[in-house]
Each structure stands twice: as structure tokens, then as C-alpha cells.
Write a structure and sequence with these properties.
Length: about 290
């Protein structure tokens, strides 16, 4: 795609890309399917397109709308240090619609005990209902912009969780958060190797805020979950995900070109090879539909 040349970009679960020019401070939302653009404040500090360095993750509070750009807040998470950048699209009005704002937080304020644990959780941050959520070992942290960033820590009742069976050969686990129909889900993978290539078990849990617990679910409500190491997303196969099957989890693993399809009803996993011309250790990039 010509629009990607000369830009750094970050995919979001809403399908829009956050774009940053390499040769100028310009930043914007871009819909790769329609070509629509929404201007964002310039990156004068260079944390995205210039010399900011380090790993970043971009999230949106909701799906952008060209007709009403103020509806969406853009959040950039630094995955090397406890720093957030956020803004609203240009023309949105308000105090945060004219520039990127920087916020440095203490990892303890987010409910974490170590720097490493908060950065790991920030890498799996998900947006639900205008708020951002992350999961820690025994708690969930919610990040709101009121308008300043504010964390709320919600303790978990671990006794109600029913994790997937831990196989004798399993050595580690990983998880990803997924927003679906206004609820927050956690997809947990039990792994049989430290390189995160072999999955021994998969469990899906919904956050019940009233019970302050993750509750295991037996169905995805006909939705298809797509889980990537950068984000998770939920799709309706009847409306916007032609070719996908409901109550299935489509997932990719780091350094693995394959697409895996876990059918929750049958308890089976199928493997799709995107092409023999690709090296086995290629990592997939995923673009979600925008409408």
C-alpha cells in the first residue's frame, strides 16, 4: 500500500491504523480499506515517527468516526518505560485536541509490584466502553481519562476462576484481552515450550465486575475471536467476517507464519499455511475490518 511508504504504523482492534511519518511530525488515523484519514496532532517530540525509540503500542478508546472525530481518544503506550502519550484528533476541541500529552505513572499506581509486570500487562491492554483495562496476577486495573489519566485497581476473587487444564508437559502460559459486545474477555493459552509455539490448552474467561472475578465461558455467543500477540478482537461472522466461523478462536503466535483455528465446540485446532514461499518464522500482521 502506497500510504504505508515513509510511515511507521500500528494496527488497532478497530481496524484503523495509527500512522506516523518518518520525515515529518505528521500523525493521523488511516482506514486501509476506504482510504479515509483523520488528522492527529503533530508528533513534535518525535516519540512515534522520529527518535523516540523503543517499543510502542497504540490503542483507541472506540472506533473513530470521520463525522465526529472527538469520539475517540488515542493512547500510545511505551513498552520500555512507564510513559503514556494520548490525544484526540485535530479539531476535536477541548484541552487534549491540539497536541499529544505525556503522562508518566508509577507502576504501583497501576496495581503492579514490579516494572516488568506492569509493562507485560500494558502490552495486553484492551479498551472497553471508553476505558482501558489490563490484567495482573490477582487484580484488574482500569485506566480512565478524566481528563487526566487515572488508574483504578479492582481485586480479583481467584477462587472462582477455572483455568484450562495444565498438561504435564506445559511449561508456561500467555494471555490476551478481547473486547466483545461491551464485555472484557481473557483468552489464556497454556504452552508446552518457552518459545510460545506449541499450545497445550486454551481457556476463555469473561470479567464479571460485580463478582470481581474472571468467569469461565463455554461459548463465544456466536462470535469469532481473533487473537494476535499485539491485540485481540471480536467479530460477528454473519455481519463483518465472511469466511470465519462462530465460536472459534483464530490465533497467531510470534515467529510463526501459521494461522490456527481452535473450534471450541469440537475441541479441535486446525492449521492454515498462508504460503510455502514464506519463511516458517515469519510473524503475521493483522488488519481488522473497519465497518
Amino acid at each position: 500500500m502506497d500510504e504505508m511508504e515513509g510511515h511507521r504504523y500500528w494496527a488497532t482492534p478497530q481496524g484503523w491504523l495509527v500512522m506516523a511519518a518518518r520525515s515529518s511530525p505528521a500523525t493521523f488515523h488511516w482506514d486501509p480499506f476506504t482510504g479515509a484519514r483523520i488528522s492527529l496532532p503533530p508528533d513534535r517530540e518525535g516519540f512515534l515517527g522520529g527518535g523516540g525509540g523503543g517499543l510502542k503500542r497504540c490503542l483507541l478508546s472506540c472506533k473513530p468516526a470521520v463525522a465526529d472525530p472527538s469520539c475517540s481518544l488515542v493512547l500510545v503506550v511505551d513498552l520500555d518505560q512507564t510513559v503514556l502519550w494520548y490525544c484526540r484528533p485535530l479539531g476535536a476541541g477541548g484541552d487534549d485536541g491540539d497536541r499529544w500529552r505525556r503522562h508518566e505513572y508509577e507502576f504501583a499506581a497501576a496495581g503492579a509490584e514490579t516494572l516488568g509486570s506492569v509493562l507485560w500487562s500494558m502490552e495486553r491492554l484492551a479498551s472497553v466502553g471508553g476505558s482501558f483495562f489490563m490484567s495482573l496476577i490477582d487484580k484488574v486495573a482500569r485506566l480512565d481519562f478524566l481528563p487526566e489519566p487515572q488508574f483504578t485497581v479492582i481485586p480479583e476473587d481467584l477462587s472462582t476462576a477455572s483455568w484450562p487444564p495444565w498438561a504435564p508437559w506445559a511449561v508456561s502460559s500467555t494471555s490476551q484481552l478481547v473486547e466483545s459486545r461491551g464485555s472484557l474477555f481473557c483468552v489464556r493459552f497454556i504452552l508446552s515450550d518457552l518459545r510460545m509455539r506449541f499450545v497445550a490448552g486454551i481457556g476463555v474467561f469473561r470479567l464479571d465486575l460485580s463478582a470481581q472475578a474472571w468467569v469461565r465461558v463455554g461459548s463465544l455467543g456466536g462470535r469469532a475471536f481473533l487473537v494476535h500477540h499485539e491485540f485481540g478482537a471480536s467479530l460477528d461472522p454473519q455481519e463483518e467476517a465472511a469466511g470465519l466461523k462462530g465460536d472459534c478462536i483464530y490465533y497467531c503466535m510470534p515467529n510463526d507464519k501459521a494461522l490456527y483455528v481452535y473450534d471450541r465446540e469440537r475441541g479441535t485446532t486446525a492449521f492454515a499455511n498462508p504460503g510455502s514461499c514464506l519463511a516458517d518464522r515469519c510473524s503475521a500482521k493483522v488488519l481488522m475490518p473497519t465497518c
